[in-house]
C-alpha cells in the first residue's frame, strides 16, 4: 500500500483555470493525485479515433510549507504519483507523447493548502523502470536477474520464515519481466495462483510465504535516472 492509499479524499475546486485545494492542515498526497488526474482530463486532446493525447510534463506548484512536507516523503511520493497517473491514463485510454516528467516545485506566492498544476505535451523517448513494492518500501529492479529470498545474499531479502533462502527470481530486460520459482519449499503465488515461471504484468501481486510484493512499471522520460 502506497502513500496515496492512506489519505482520505477532500473537497476539490477550480480557481482561475488551475486546480487548487484548500486545507487547514495543508495539501496531502491524495489531493495532488486528484489534481494531476483532473489536469489530464482537462487537457486531453483527441488526435485520431484511437488516440487521445494528454500532457506528460507535469509540474505541481506548492506553498513553501507544503513543499517541505512533501519533500520529506522522498522519491517514493513521486513514484506513487506517477503510478496513479499511469493507471488513470490506462483506464481512460489516454496516450502520452513521451515519458512522464513529474516535478514538485516550491512557489512562494502560494498559501498553505493551495496547489496548482502546470501541464504540457513534451515529445520524447520513453524509458521504463520496473519496481517492486514490499512492506511500504519500493525497490528498483536492475536489468538482468534479481533474486528474492530469505538468504543474506539475495538481492531482495525477505524476512519471512515461509521463504526459502533463494525463493524466486525476476528477470527484467528493460521492457518486460519474467518471474520464476527457484524450487522453493512453499512455492510462489502470482495473483493467487502457484507458478513455476510466468511473464509479469504491471500491478501483479507476488506472494512469498506471508510476504506480499507488488510489481509495477513506471514510464519516465529517457535520461530521468
From TrEMBL:
Keyword Phosphoprotein listed: yes
InterPro entries: Cell_Proc_Reg/RNA_Proc (IPR050923), FHA_dom (IPR000253), FhaA_N (IPR022128), FhaA_N_sf (IPR042287), SMAD_FHA_dom_sf (IPR008984)
Keyword Nucleus: no
Record keywords: Phosphoprotein
Name of a matching Pfam family: FHA
Residues annotated as domain FHA: 146-195
CDD domains: FHA
UniProt-listed PANTHER family: NUCLEAR INHIBITOR OF PROTEIN PHOSPHATASE-1
Protein's recorded name: FHA domain-containing protein
Organism field: Agrococcus jejuensis
Amino acid at each position: 500500500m502506497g502513500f496515496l492509499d492512506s489519505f482520505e479524499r477532500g473537497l476539490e475546486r477550480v480557481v482561475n483555470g488551475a486546480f487548487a485545494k484548500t486545507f487547514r492542515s495543508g495539501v496531502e498526497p491524495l489531493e495532488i493525485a486528484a489534481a494531476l488526474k483532473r489536469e489530464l482530463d482537462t487537457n486531453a486532446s483527441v488526435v485520431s479515433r484511437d488516440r487521445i493525447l494528454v500532457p506528460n510534463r507535469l509540474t505541481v506548484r506548492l506553498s513553501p510549507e507544503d513543499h517541505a512536507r512533501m519533500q520529506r516523503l522522498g522519491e517514493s511520493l513521486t513514484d506513487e504519483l506517477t503510478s496513479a497517473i499511469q493507471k488513470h491514463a490506462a483506464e481512460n485510454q489516454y496516450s502520452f507523447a513521451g515519458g512522464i516528467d513529474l516535478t514538485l516545485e516550491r512557489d512562494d506566492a502560494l498559501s498553505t493548502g493551495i496547489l496548482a498544476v502546470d501541464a504540457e505535451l513534451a515529445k520524447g523517448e520513453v524509458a521504463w523502470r520496473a519496481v517492486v513494492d514490499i512492506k511500504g518500501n519500493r525497490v528498483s529492479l536492475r536489468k538482468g536477474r534479481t533474486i528474492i529470498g530469505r538468504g543474506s545474499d539475495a538481492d531482495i531479502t525477505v524476512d519471512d520464515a515461509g521463504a526459502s533462502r533463494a525463493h524466486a527470481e525476476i528477470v527484467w530486460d528493460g521492457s518486460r519481466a519474467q518471474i520464476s520459482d527457484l524450487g522453493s519449499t512453499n512455492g510462489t503465488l502470482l495473483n493467487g495462483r502457484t507458478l513455476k515461471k510466468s511473464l509479469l504484468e504491471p500491478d501483479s501481486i507476488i506472494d512469498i510465504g506471508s510476504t506480499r510484493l507488488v510489481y509495477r512499471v513506471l514510464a519516465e522520460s529517457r535520461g530521468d535516472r
